[in-house]
Amino acid sequence: MTGKFDPVSDESVIEIRDLHLDYGDFTAVDGISLAVPPGQVLALLGTNGAGKTSTVDVLTGFQRPTSGTVRVLGADPLTERRKIATRVGIVLQEAGFLETLTVAETIDAWRRFTPGARPRAEALEMVDLGRRAGVQVGKLSGGEKRRLDLTLGLLGGPEVLFLDEPTTGLDPEARRNVWHLLRELILAGMTVLLTTHYMEEAEALADQVAIMDRGRIVREGTLAEITARSATAVSFRLPPAFGAADLPPLDGAEAAERDGRVLVHTHEPQRTLAALLGWAAGHGVELAELDVRAGSLEDAFLAAAAGERSSR
Ligand SMILES: Nc1ncnc2c1ncn2[C@@H]1O[C@H](COP(=O)(O)OP(=O)(O)OP(=O)(O)O)[C@@H](O)[C@H]1O
């Protein structure tokens, strides 16, 4: 374990210790440990089939672990579900709605078995579905259905929220509205574990990120810790008489030419830039369209997945 995660902390709201989950002879989750402190957001990223949903299924009591333990608010979500059910919100990938009920009827039905549920109008308003209240669920767009999923997960004002790809299918504006809503609830103290394929979503919401690949965690830490490990990309154009081979030695940074641009990946951007600018000044050369881009979460994700692939 690295970073701030401390799987033995008593304070963790969500805790996973050495979790394994097999489906027959296939191992979907291969020994992961994670902990999420109160009021924090952990984003679980990963390639398709990495084991993210399987992990959420164990945390929400839908799957029994093959080995290892999970605790949510100190309880086993499978055997002690009743103890914590009213304090936990769940938004899974596939919600089993009755397509013939209207949005309002669906919310009313859920309100009946959700203690302390928000009023229907508030639930509709939160996800901007007020004008769709009388529409049958089967006639909603994919993005509207997703927003209905979300408001049902938030109906009882949960302390802990599990979100499996919460904004898949949402247009950019609706996605931003959902992030805004979630941020307000997180500021009020809600703890969240979410899975997502959108790096921007993790950047917008998460305190901690864990990247999964083939059942294992291959990177974890704060956003800053994870992106700091990605190289900075420096790129520019050289005059026709010059090529990447003319550049000075860049102390470990690699220079390559692509589509007429020189691209340098460096873990020491200041040193690399000083060498490049010194060389350009000495040769009277302009580094045209000079661009310096810090390592992104997406770079870290791609490097993590590629690194795992080559090491197996
Ligand atoms: N009930 C099941 N029986 C057998 N294999 C399963 C079952 N559920 C999932 N798997 C397999 O386990 C692996 C992990 O699946 P999981 O849904 O947890 O991945 P994921 O990271 O959520 O993927 P995605 O990003 O595509 O949703 C996949 O190879 C999947 O095919």
UniProtKB/TrEMBL annotation:
Q: Which Pfam families match?
A: ABC_tran
- Mark the transmembrane ranges: none
- Keyword Mitochondrion assigned to the entry: answer is no
* Highest taxon of the lineage: Bacteria
How this chain sits in the membrane, per its record, is: Peripheral membrane protein
Principal place of residence: membrane
Q: Which CDD domains match?
A: ABC_DR_subfamily_A
Provide this UniProt record's keywords sorted from A to Z: Antibiotic resistance, ATP-binding, Nucleotide-binding, Transport
Annotated InterPro entries: AAA+_ATPase (IPR003593), ABC_transporter-like_ATP-bd (IPR003439), ABC_transporter_ATP-binding (IPR050763), P-loop_NTPase (IPR027417)
A single GO molecular function term of this UniProt record = ATP hydrolysis activity
Question: Which residues, by range, are in coiled-coil regions?
Answer: none
Q: Does the keyword Nucleotide-binding apply?
A: yes
Q: Which GO terms describe its biological process?
A: response to antibiotic
The cellular component terms of Gene Ontology attached to this UniProt record, alphabetical and capped at eight, are: plasma membrane
Database matches in PANTHER family: ABC TRANSPORTER ATP-BINDING PROTEIN (PTHR42711)
Q: What is this protein called?
A: ABC-2 type transport system ATP-binding protein
Protein's organism: Amycolatopsis saalfeldensis
